[in-house]
Specification:
Two copies of one chain form a homodimer. The first copy, chain A, has 350 residues and is α/β, with parallel strands linked by helices. The first copy, chain A, has helices at 14-32, 45-51, 57-65, 77-80, 89-99, 123-126, 163-178, 194-207, 220-229, 241-254, 292-304, 308-323, 339-348, and strands spanning 2-10, 35-40, 68-73, 104-110, 130-136, 146-148, 154-162, 183-188, 214-219, 236-239, 262-266, 271-275. The first copy, chain A, has 13 helices and twelve strands. The first copy, chain A, has a ten-stranded mixed β-sheet, with helices on both faces. A two-stranded antiparallel sheet of chain A has the order 6-7. The mean pLDDT of chain A is 94. Bound molecules: 3-isopropylmalic acid (2 copies). Chains A, B: Belongs to the isocitrate and isopropylmalate dehydrogenases family. LeuB type 1 subfamily.
Chain lengths: 350, 350
């Protein structure tokens, strides 16, 4: 298979971990006889420093012309001090999601058997946890109209949803549930929000087309509680943008380390794959960042393009690195392996 | 001291647990020579069944004329099946918060030493956890304008805040931090929301008047993660209505049982005290509900009116019930004590 891949390393540890993903993809090309081309683009603080914009036109075009985007991480300490600045690195990411219409963010949460001890939750609580969050990514309060009063004493953000925005992600989530444990939980706040009521209405109707899937509902406050008390009750969680942001970060904490979780952002025409974790500026350039989340994101990319065997090969190599304790220091304080060695080990085992 | 107290038992186990609180308050009256009067009012599903409204005019007036309100719980299975119904029991609670301008919801999260085993989190993770959430309760997306398109394919909820709404709760939160561990964490999403930027601006300015208190900021997604990874880093968390709803329920899960946590809702002229937990319809009338959350809410009420010694006496009696294992079945499956016996034991020990 031929694939055009855009690499957006971004800020912080992004470029370092992404380089390990490329190693793995090159191993996949060789082993399975594919042909991937890689082009690099700028986004985030690096783009701001060079072009004054966190998402230069050039980068958008590059992404639009490619089959898939591998994304690193975004944000630097320099801009973190001032969350109120109009132009922030994150704006680049939000704008890219919107430009490419990446309306579905998929975040699997699964416990690595070797890492149960890392979880803040007790073993019997997390046992068997394996769920995936489908988060709406281009609507809701993130992108609704924003206002300030002239005197600066009042501000507002509009949360809005249309049936179309809900139904396209709902179909993807139901399909995922069908191929998994056949349970879909819609998380909303339908006892307070009208947008949540619209979600319930649309999702309840769509459920009729997926009779194999059991649909249930949880208010978001209860969901946050259940995710702590009993995370293994979940299979597919479907939710709107803001709730998905909160719950997926909470979900990632279940695993103890954010350095392990991949994510995919899918649209009708484009797809982007990125680690769950942030840019970890303190670790930049030190060869200590965990490349596994980024590498597992490439596995999600391979699956997305139907290369399931290839995807499995990557996942198996990652598991091997854990079993053999070829891991970065975040997982084993005594480890002598750096980012690049772990990446090479995984690539060599594909 | 003379106090006029309105009792709103509400639905489900509300009236049963509230009855135990009254026992305790009567013990306080006797022991400390106070005089409290109690009047009952209707709210929630019981009020809907009787008056067709979850918050009858009568109840509002009763509350306005009293010094404090003790609230039970709200919601029944009957109405839970239909979250989209226009008139729901919860509407009564939301309207009451608004009518009485109860703009600050205070939810302490503290681990009972005897109950560490109940927490889903590992012992070393929760060790020392003792924080309090100050949640804004009468603004934000809960009360902003709501819209539907005529064809029912679009809905919106407006999230809005004014400087005044933020500053009044911020002052209360800073004062609390000053008398505690001197740390205040503002939780927001200032990298995306304009309302969050207003919160940061206002809170940062108010911080100047409280130089003893260290102010820091967390994005809400990170806060949900930190609450799982390292809850004992928090002292006072200040946040807007929707984020507070989610985080306080997540926080309650830290304790393993929701049956233990009290809350207070404070306004300039009125104050209401209620357990954290829901109406637990399945347990109604069975004398198995845990009355501790409701009883500890009365302790918050006593403190609120300056009766600190009285409040401590209630808390000490609760601790004694735990130490002596005079608890309901949710805390000890072999317990033979019911709601009413636990309430009586605590009252007798005041
Ligand atoms: C950086 C930020 C704008 C972003 C979001 O809130 O969507 C991040 O938290 C995420 O979840 O990808
Ligand atoms: C019942 C519901 C409307 C309410 C809220 O969301 O505020 C509840 O969850 C709470 O936290 O008191």
């Amino acid at each position: 298979m031929d694939l055009k891949i855009t690499l957006l390393g971004g800020d912080g540890i992004g470029p370092e971990v992404l380089a390990q993903s490329v190693k793995c993809l090159q191993a996949v090309e060789e082993t399975f006889n594919h042909h991937f081309t890689y082009t690099e683009g700028l986004i985030g603080a690096v783009a701001m420093d060079k072009y004054g914009s966190p998402l230069p036109e050039e980068t958008i075009n590059l992404c639009k012309e490619s089959d898939a985007i591998l994304f690193g991480t975004i944000g630097t300490l320099k801009y973190d001090d001032n969350p109120s600045a109009r132009v922030r690195p994150e704006q680049g990411l939000l704008q890219l999601r919107r430009e490419l219409e990446l309306f579905t963010n998929i975040r699997p949460v699964r416990i690595f058997p070797t890492l149960v001890a890392k979880s803040p939750l007790k073993k019997h609580v997390i046992f068997g946890t394996d769920f995936v969050i489908y988060r709406e990514l281009t609507g809701g309060i993130y992108f609704g109209e924003k206002q300030w009063s002239e005197d600066g004493t009042y501000a507002s953000d509009l949360c809005e949803y249309s049936e179309k925005e809900i139904s396209r992600i709902a179909h993807l989530a139901f399909k995922a549930a069908k191929s998994r444990k056949k349970k879909l939980t819609l998380v909303d706040k339908a006892n307070v929000l009208e947008t949540s009521r619209l979600w319930r209405k649309v999702v309840t109707r769509i459920a009729e087309s997926y009779p194999e899937v059991k649909l249930d509902f949880l208010f978001v406050d209860n969901a946050a509680m259940q995710m702590m008390l009993n995370p293994n009750q979940f299979d597919v969680i479907l939710t709107e943008n803001m709730f998905g942001d909160i719950l997926s970060d909470q979900g990632s904490a279940i695993c103890g380390s954010k350095g392990l979780l991949p994510s995919a952002s899918i649209g009708a025409e484009h797809a982007m794959f990125e680690p769950f974790h942030g840019s970890y500026p303190q670790a930049t350039g030190k060869d200590i960042a965990n490349p596994v989340a980024s590498i597992l994101s490439t596995a999600m990319m391979l699956s997305h393009f139907g290369m399931h065997e290839e995807s499995r090969a990557v996942v198996i190599a990652v598991h091997k690195s854990m079993r053999k304790n070829v891991v970065t220091k975040d997982l084993n304080a005594n480890s002598r392996y750096g980012t690049s060695e772990v990446g090479a080990f995984i690539a060599d085992n594909i």
